[in-house]
């Protein structure tokens, strides 16, 4: 389940980066900035999901 969530978040980040680039070419910088910040949030969340699984497995009581 985590693997598919990470894949979906990375895909969403890539698509948002492409959309932000299109808004950048159209010189709509406000929209491009908002979309790029959303892409950055998706990317950070995907990395957080991926790293959270490795921390849980290595923890011993």
Model description:
This protein is mainly alpha-helical and 61 residues long. The chain has one domain. Helices cover 89% and strands 0% of the residues. The protein has helices at residues 2-25, 29-58. It is elongated. The relative contact order is 0.17. The mean pLDDT is 83.
Question: How do you describe this structure in short?
Answer:
With 61 residues, the protein is mostly helical.
The coarse silhouette is: elongated
Strand tally is 0
Strand and helix order:
HH
* Total number of domains: 1
Helix content: over 70%
User: Which structural class do the helices and strands define?
Assistant: mainly alpha
SS strand fraction: under 5%
Radius of gyration: 15 Å
Low-confidence stretches: none
Sheet with most strands: none
Q: Helix count, per DSSP?
A: 2
Q: What separation lies between the terminal Cα atoms? A: 25 Å
- Name the average pLDDT: 83
Structural key phrases:
61 residues; mainly alpha; 2 helices; 89% helix; 0% strand
Helices, strands, pairings?
Layout: H1 2-25, H2 29-58
Helix pairs in contact: 1-2
């Amino acid at each position: 389940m985590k693997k598919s969530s990470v894949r979906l978040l990375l895909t969403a980040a890539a698509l948002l980066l492409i959309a932000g680039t299109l808004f950048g070419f159209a010189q709509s910088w406000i929209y491009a900035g908002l979309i790029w910040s959303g892409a950055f949030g998706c990317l950070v969340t995907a990395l957080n999901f991926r790293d959270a699984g490795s921390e849980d497995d290595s923890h011993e009581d």
